[in-house]
From TrEMBL:
Keywords assigned by UniProt, alphabetized: Membrane, Transmembrane, Transmembrane helix
Lineage, top ranks: Bacteria, Pseudomonadati, Pseudomonadota, Alphaproteobacteria, Hyphomicrobiales
Keyword Cytoplasm: no
Annotated protein name in UniProt: Citrate/tricarballylate utilization protein
Record has Transcription regulation as a keyword: no
SUPFAM superfamilies in the cross-refs: Respiratory nitrate reductase 1 gamma chain
Membrane spanning residue stretches: 93-123, 143-171, 224-245, 257-277, 297-316, 322-343
Superkingdom assignment: Bacteria
Length: 373
């Protein structure tokens, strides 16, 4: 659908919903539209990212096709959500990366990984690259620490700046007029909604992961994946502490904190990703947007490659295969950082901001018609 049609369709459906409100209680979207009759483009960008695509309102809707109203709120908001990722991307030209996401991500991550492997093969003498290294500093005999840390940090800095500027631009579009006090009061409820994924709960019984049956599978798979990711980040931070503060160089013993945290984190990520991919394969496509499904799949596969290659480094670290495995993992990590601003990762930032806006709106009672509070 051309952009104007997307806006018109979301506006049409939301007007029906705001008159109906049967789904009030399913998620934060319905309290946010209660009593509203006009939706500005900024309102639509806010609501699109507030929706968690739990599909509850699709299966509950008495006006869904074949009813002539043909209400499909999850699809209308998912289409807008995809467009908002491109609209707020910084630099602006990055927005095009969302349209052909699989090709862009494959080309960039594949290119960075190939370059990293080539550079390793050309610059590291074969007797070092294919030797079994053991003991402190083994990894850095293949890829020196300043190169490893410097390349990863530069790629991550790019992602943080790009996503940060996009996030500021999005927040300026959706921010409500509220005092600093109201904003601060909203922080804890917003954080609770972000961390617990309350809006994937369908108001209690769960969301419609694959059909009209309720389930908490998507919510739990997401929790497991994020917990695994955070454990992997913790592993990197603890390893950096060991390196800089304690002057102990990797690789660390299997029972050390960085290895336990990274190993458990990598396995948890793969379990969560596997569950999410299975749900995505079984999901009813009608309440989704095809572009969003593609974005989800690309990001999940990318995360799985990073996690699996990290575990491979752990498994092969005492063997002659460590050098190339480490180089492969490093290339995948750097490539992933480079494509973060055009990946599904951005949904976490926009959705968190939409949840903060919803929490602020709950903290500041909306004036009723006639100006009464
Ligand atoms: S999705 Fe359907 S049932 Fe739910 S509020 Fe909208 S129109 Fe009503
Ligand atoms: S799909 Fe779920 S989260 Fe989105 S509007 Fe419907 S009930 Fe709310």
């Amino acid at each position: 659908m051309p952009p104007d049609d997307l806006t018109d369709e979301a506006d049409r459906v939301l007007r029906i919903c705001t008159a109906c409100m049967y789904c009030d209680g399913l998620c934060a979207v319905f309290p946010a539209i209660a009593g509203k009759h006009d939706f500005t483009p900024n309102d639509l960008d806010y609501l699109a990212n507030l929706c968690h695509n739990c599909r509850g309102c699709w299966y509950a809707c008495q006006y869904a096709p074949p009813h002539p109203f043909a209400v499909n709120l999850p699809n209308a908001l998912a289409e807008l959500r995809q467009r908002s990722y491109a609209d707020y991307a910084w630099p602006r030209w990055l927005g095009a990366g969302f349209a052909a996401n699989a090709g862009v991500v494959t080309a960039i991550v594949g290119g960075v990984t190939t370059l990293t492997l080539l550079a390793t093969a050309l610059l590291v003498p074969a007797e070092v690259l294919f030797a079994a290294h053991r003991g402190a500093g083994a990894f850095y005999q293949v890829v020196p620490w300043p190169i490893m840390a410097g390349a990863a940090a530069a790629a991550l800095l790019w992602a943080v700046i790009s996503i940060g500027v996009s996030a500021i631009s999005y927040w300026r579009s959706i921010a409500p007029r509220a005092s600093l006090g109201a904003t601060l009061r909203a922080l804890v409820p917003a954080l609770r909604d972000i961390v617990t994924l309350r809006n994937l709960g369908g108001g209690g019984p769960g969301c419609n992961d694959a059909s009209e049956k309720f389930s908490q599978q998507r919510r739990w798979c997401h929790h497991i994946m994020v917990a695994g990711f955070l454990a992997s980040v913790a592993s990197t931070l603890i390893a950096a502490l060991y390196h800089h503060a304690l002057a102990i160089e990797a690789p660390y013993p299997l029972t050390s904190l960085p290895v336990l945290s990274g190993g458990i984190g990598g396995v948890a990520m793969l379990i969560g990703i596997g569950g999410l991919l299975r749900l995505e394969r079984r999901a009813d496509r009608a309440p989704s947007a095809a572009a969003e499904v593609r974005l989800n799949l690309v990001f999940l596969v990318l995360l799985a490659l990073v996690a699996a290659s990290g575990l491979a480094v752990l498994a092969l670290r005492d063997t002659p295969a460590m050098g190339l495995t480490l180089s492969l993992h490093l290339g995948l990590v750097i490539g992933s950082f480079v494509v973060l601003p055009v990946s599904k990762a951005v949904h976490g930032v926009y959705r968190s901001m939409a949840l903060l806006r919803a929490a602020i709106d709950r903290a500041v009672p909306r004036p009723r018609r006639g100006g009464e509070e």
